[in-house]
Amino acid sequence: MISISLQQKKCIGCNYCAEIAPELFRMSKKDGKSVLLHATHKGDYQNLKTNDFFREDALKCKEVCPVKIIKVHDCKS
Ligand code: SF4
């Protein structure tokens, strides 16, 4: 399992994460910021625990995010 987190407030709306991993992120039509899909915590600090299948894409998003607000950690189920 991995844990993905997004500090939404600092998102600059570049759209990179939603392009790389549309299964994980989409852009909000309301404020133009990224939304972590299926996150258990909504709001500024969004968090999602999901399986390893999404690890590679999540790490790519973490790398390309210009403001470094996407974090990816290993976690136990
Ligand atoms: S890559 Fe970072 S700054 Fe760009 S939309 Fe995604 S979370 Fe926001």
Structural account:
This protein has helices at residues 16-20, 55-64, and strands at residues 2-7, 25-27, 34-36, 45-50, 70-74. By secondary structure, it is of the alpha+beta class. It has one domain: 2-Layer Sandwich (Alpha-Beta Plaits). The strands form two sheets. A three-stranded antiparallel sheet has the order 4-1-5, with helices on one face. Strands 2-3 form a two-stranded antiparallel ribbon. Bound molecules: iron/sulfur cluster. Iron/sulfur cluster (SF4) binds next to helix 1. Iron/sulfur cluster is lined by residues 6, 11-17, 34, 64-67, 69-70.
SSE blueprint:
Blueprint: E1 2-7, H1 16-20, E2 25-27, E3 34-36, E4 45-50, H2 55-64, E5 70-74
Antiparallel strand pairs: 1-4, 1-5, 2-3
Output the keywords.
Alpha-Beta Plaits, binds iron/sulfur cluster, 2 helices, alpha+beta, single chain, 77 residues
Strand-pairing-aware structural class: alpha+beta
Q: Could you please say which CATH topology applies here?
A: Alpha-Beta Plaits
> What is the averaged pLDDT score?
95
| Bound small molecules, deduplicated | iron/sulfur cluster
Q: Output the number of helix runs.
A: 2
Report the sheet-strand fraction.
25-35%
